[in-house]
Model the fold of this input.
Amino acid sequence: MQIPSRPLNEEERLATLRELDILDTPSEERFDRLTRLARRLFNVSVALVSLVDVDRQWFKSVEGLCFRETSRDTSFCGHAILEEDLLVIPDALADERFYDNPLVIDGPRIRFYAGCPLTVSGGIKLGSFCLMDTQPRDFSEDDRASLRDIGQIVVRELIAFELATKDMLTGMANRQTFRGIAEHALNICRQEQTPAVLVYFDLDNFKSINDRYGHAEGDRALVTFADSLHSVTRESDVTGRVGGDEFIALFIGSDGMQVSGIISRLRQVLDNRCRQMQLPYAIQFSAGDVPYDAARHASIARMIKEADRAMYVEKRQPDLARDQVLTEAVSI
Done:
């Protein structure tokens, strides 16, 4: 068996796959519809949308198999992403790369394979749309053209997936995606009795930046904040942009004191970046944090509501302090 080699742009390829944030997500009809169609159109036993990870291939959609992933070393799709065009194996037993592959001699007993690389911008191949059968067979030019067409549709759906789940300015998860990921994270925290803290951020005086310096500069401020927030979080934390100048973060495995330190560090990072970038304004924010309480927080929505309220209390602190001074002056 020949183990597939790694593409020259493997590091960039994996980074793009990570940014897509699609691995281990639930099945979706827009992809399943295509694998069902392909299975009938080509009369094969298996059709897959396969994404090649570090050491596995994972199936976003699968028709004809009872499992969702296999080792990358034994995968046909690991070979397909090395191709500029289709990879077609009429008979795996007659191919020196695959004749003794476990997927050929055991398991699904693959004899025929045809895979179209899923190529996104920059020539990066994330995986393949592939067909498999238990019998050897020919694959005509018309078949190849049809497979390419479906492969292009899959690529468009992958791009649509990214647009639907990410804030395109900052690259962070959007509100809907954040809620889905954070809800899953809270379920794990509940099961493992792991602490977590949700923080809701709102940029101070953001409107004045837009009004005085223009929307392009406002976008620059948002990206600078997002990058700074990313720099103080870990891979286990969940972050997102949930409004025009509103951001959110769920810190997993951290308590209130630790998160207070992270917020202080974020303020320092922002101050340093503003000086380095010689911005004509400061990027400041208000933040409200809520520790996770399994008895009180049945959902992430409840935590978001509480953190949002706490953030507005902090934002009003200068006004509250001024009102207190005026009240005391009147009483005197």
Q: What stands out?
A: Residues 320-332 have pLDDT under 50 and may be disordered. The longest strand covers residues 124-133.
